[in-house]
Amino acid sequence: xxxxxxxxxINFVAIPAALILLAGFSHAADTLELSRPARPWEFACxxxxxxGMFGNEAGQFEAWVYPLKIxxxxxxxxxxEGRVIPAETLVRTAIARPESFTLIYSGDTFTxxxxxxxxxxxPGAIVKIDLETEQPFAVQAAFERDFxxxxxxxxxxxxxxWDKELGAFTMGEExxxxxxxxxxxxxxxxxxxxxxxxxxxxxxxFDLGVTTKGRDSKVVVIxxxxxxRTEATRTYKHLLxxxxxxxxxxxxxxxxxxxxxxxxxxxxxQIQQAYDWSRISVLQGLVTxxxxxxxxxxxxRSSGETQRPGFAWxxxxxxxxxxxxxNSEGDFATTKTALEFxxxxxxxxxxxxxxxxxxxxxxxxxxxxxYPYASADAxxxxxxxxxxxxxxxxxxxxAKQKWDxxxxxxxxxxxxxxxxxxxxxxxxxxxxxEGGPLLPVETExxxxxxxxxxxxxxxxxxxxxxxxxxxxxxQTEFKRQQTLVNQAxxxxxxxxxxxxxxxxxxxxxxxxxxxxxxxxxGLLDNEKSQSTISQLxxxxxxxxxxxxxxxxxxxxFSGGGYHFGSVWPLFxxxxxxxxxxxxxxxxxxxxxxQNALLALDGSLGHVTEVLSxxxxxxxxxxSPHQIWSAAMVISxxxxxxxxxxxxxxxxxxxxxxxxxxxxxxxxxxxxxxxNSSIELGFRRTADQVTLQLKNAGExxxxxxxxxxxxxxxxxxxxxxxKAIAFHLSPGDTDQHADIKFQLPAGSSVLKLxxxxxxxxxxxxELPPLGSESxxxxxxxxxxxADSLEVAISGAAGATYEIPVWNPRxxxxxxxxELVRKDAEFGALRITIPAGGAEPYPHERIMIRFVK
Length: 851
Fold this sequence. Notes:
The protein has 17 helices and 53 strands. With 851 residues, it is an alpha+beta fold. Strand 9 and strand 10 (124-133) form a beta hairpin.
């Protein structure tokens, strides 16, 4: 059974066991774990909705019970054989699980497992220490007290004492509102911080008792309260008494979440792991502040000697971009919570907030500080996010409830239009770029694109709210804005979209990955988008770890530039979804996989905020557990590669996958469409595609539109053994077989018979930390009836292998060799010539097909 907290967290439809396709998935969820040799510098954390521990793989942590920072530099020392050994010198292995983080320390005669656990709904944390020793052995825990509110708030006079009865340090302040307790039932030999005229120490420590030989367990508990010492004591005792049950409950919570949101079984184990972990990472962005409420924060990082833990406060545009991933995976409850939280702080003129500190209620945050409404893009994104949530969840009541709010947002958006009718950034708020040499501008393509898309979203919401006249008017406005955006930002000579218009409304000749944001929503003209994508796919913009904001050849580029050269997984996710939208599956899959690999490297299970544009490493100020970065694993997988679009309002599901060349199967479970839960099992051979379907619930309309190569011939389609009509939608790089039918309750089978299908793929791996980019890039595909020419770019002298689907179709090959071949799968080996002046020369592969 799922606990009540989980049931409040996510709306889902129960699925009879007989209808479960992915019998192996529960096992995958049970064993969701990442382990590797410890990297002492790497960020590590354990977080819940009310508290968090942030630190590193050396075992140095800080503890928060929101909005209060309790301590920093929590660490262990080991006392054995007459020596005091700092634990960080013996750290060997790091293990991440959804509910906890574990470090293993080893010495000559002992081993210690230190597990950090922050229960999902408790205002405190538990550190469990399991040890085995041959010799008498003691553990000492030490820390430095902070006991301050999150930036920019602060407490006045604070104090600390040792409570011998509790075996704990107690902390408080003069008003008696805030309290914290740190201790252990086996604690003794306490040493307190002090300061006098002659010396001082910030460190507090206590011993956890001696183990003479064999195995033993110790526990340290950290509890906090904003309601005084009595409540903190009650929490402290509860965590001590029930920590084993709380650990099981937290594990069950995450296991239940994985099992009841959209679950995948993929042949690429790395994307599989990254997708599962990213769902956990996004969920862990849900934070409850007792003074503000519950919403999505932006990310986590240690604060050190400050009170600013990365971006562990609430952001408007972060919440909205993240909501698209939540909606796709079926977690409508978290999206609704996030939208309701941010909209509470909508300004009277309709503008939506950019950021809300967890200390906001203690200061005049919304009037005295420049941050709350700094962005312009949060406002159109809010309208778009509300429409996306309503359509996917079917929550029509929410559309009516939020109508006045989204209409106010629309009125504010229109008030920012310049003389030609585009929403301004200058003097209104930043778009994507917040500072640096790309500014000032009048409006970014990013901002103007979102402004246009918001009109279409609001038109759909008006229709759902029964306002047909308003809907028609907004649709007319949208069409006008779409045309204007496509014209105003187009550089005809360069054949690409520009980054922005300057303050004189002249086009800024700068190519940026930000152009893929309006592509995500299908706003931009197809031919113009294809040309822009091709230019973005090259090594100047694309690294082995993701997309730079601008190309390395730009005079304004710097690899460490936060907004003028760095790589954001957010950008990479935008690019992937946009590229899939315009049927550029090769660069799209490369970007998807790069983000997925980041979730398995760096801070285990998390995707960092921003990396260098020059070398594979996060920039020094990056938040290692960034929520929208994890969302940019989920959205490219579901919205991009798998082409899943659930419309609960109209009881319709669209499934339009671009299947990678090295995949022949995958499965999807728990696709929620209104009152139905759908399972899809996809399998293909060279001459047949089989789609197994199970529908637990009402009938829905299904549109199945898989991508095939332009030369493929679809011979027949059968639904449950009977012929069904299909329609082919041709394109430059693929064609889609569009099949529409009503899916009844129970099981169904759709089979497609075809000939001559063929595709190539991309292969990618992350380079060693600190390395430059060396991977191959596919720049374009040119298809004819009997040939395929592929333009590529790679590092001079490097050799690459790329996957091939149905290699028997190859008659002749130039620029590569076929090195592996069986019935369906093959591989091409390509060597880039060395010795030229160009470090990333362009080459071509010419494939001629059998007739």
